[in-house]
Amino acid sequence: MQSFEYRTPNTTADALAAVAQEDARFIAGGQTLLQSMKLGLIAPSALVDLAGVAELKGICRDGDAIVIGAATSHAEVAASAELRQAIPALAALADQIGDRQVRHRGTLGGSLANNDPAACYPAAVLGLGATVHTHKRRIAADDFFQGIYTTALDEGELITAVSFPIPARAGWQKFRQPASRFALVGVFVSQGPAGVRVAVTGAGSGGVFRATALEQKLAASWSAAALAGASVPADDLVTDLHGSAAYRAALIPELAARAVG
Fold first, then answer.
1. Which of 127, 175, 182, 259 has the most crowded CB, counting CB atoms within 10 A?
2. Could you say which of 3.30.390.50, 3.30.572.10, 3.40.50.2300, 3.30.70.260 is the CATH number of the domain covering 169-260?
3. At 189, phi and psi to the nearest 5?
4. Which pLDDT tens digit goes with each residue over 13-72?
5. Are 192 and 204 in contact (CB under 8 A)?
6. How far apart are CA 8 and CA 148, in angstroms?
């Protein structure tokens, strides 16, 4: 691995100042960033560690939403009693990410900023109609995800928190790839302030997406039976060594029905 400076700010302001140097990168859990560096895909001049920035951590209720700090680990999200009561599907999603080591190192903000096409959190953010907060603005979920490993974030823009509207109902189902535990297909469904939403991860050639045809069926009747015979086009889905586009297309409505219960 190449040489780099290592900085440990204690506040958001200090972190932003530290990353202003050319080619510096934020690091939270480092689950993706460090692997990319080891493979020589990126070579930042400095890493700005967010682990010591307490204001980026924590989970609280704000009116009809749950707000989660960007540096909150997957394990902390999964264990939150408040979240388990308000949005149990989101806590369950966090509890299924990777293995124990990954859940204790990986963070919500890091997952979203990386926007891996098979990551779990993007499905929850899009499926709940959440809002991504940064140090300078708020970005609606529908505007945040812009393709594989691509988001609406500007260079040096820092995710500080995500606010999740509390839905009347929500569910999550993941068909995991057994080696990586990423989603071969993952489906998050919700019925809440933004209506019915169905978000799919792991299947789209452009990353996470909304299955609008399934949303329409569930809006008419929130039941697994409403999805009987439903189909999703395979045209824009992924084919790889783990499964074909047609296989993924067949999984999506099945997982959505299971998520509805």
1. 127
2. 3.30.390.50
3. -120, 145
4. 999 999 998 789 999 988 888 888 888 888 989 999 999 999 999 999 999 999 999 999
5. no
6. 29
